[in-house]
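Supplementary notes (optional reading)

For those who missed the lab, this is the record we used. Protein: Chemotaxis protein CheW. Length: 150 residues.
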Amino acid sequence: MAEKQYVIFKLENESYGVDIMRVQEICEYKESVKVPNTPKFVDGIINLRGDIIPIISLRKKFNLQEEQVNSDTRIIVIHLQENQVGFLVDEASQVLRINEEDIEPAPEIVTGVDKKYITGVGKLEDKIVLLLDLEYILTDYEKEQIQQIS
């Protein structure tokens, strides 16, 4: 029985998971510098130990209502092509192991060309976790725009 580890994060009251092997680091919120003429979901850029990293608001990308940043707000940093990219989330507080047999394919209602970032649904006792691949959240065009920011 194989297990995978997922970093669990929250947006609003929903739980999402991303494969821990895809996550470079999780850091506390840092105020970003706004960059003009960027897509609406780009929060800005930050300096993370000498590297300029674009920050993407998953709330904006998922068309959720914006919320005030608080002490739980985190940035999940991944490697996207040759760049580091940070994803702004409400909270990222735990790593969970999920058995492969407790992961089901994403329902057809949420899949499609623009939803290829949903890799499955993890079942955990009394809740479900939508499993994402953050590398596929952006379209190829959006990735090009992000590379220009970096």
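If you only remember one thing from this example: The two ends are 41 Å apart (CA to CA).
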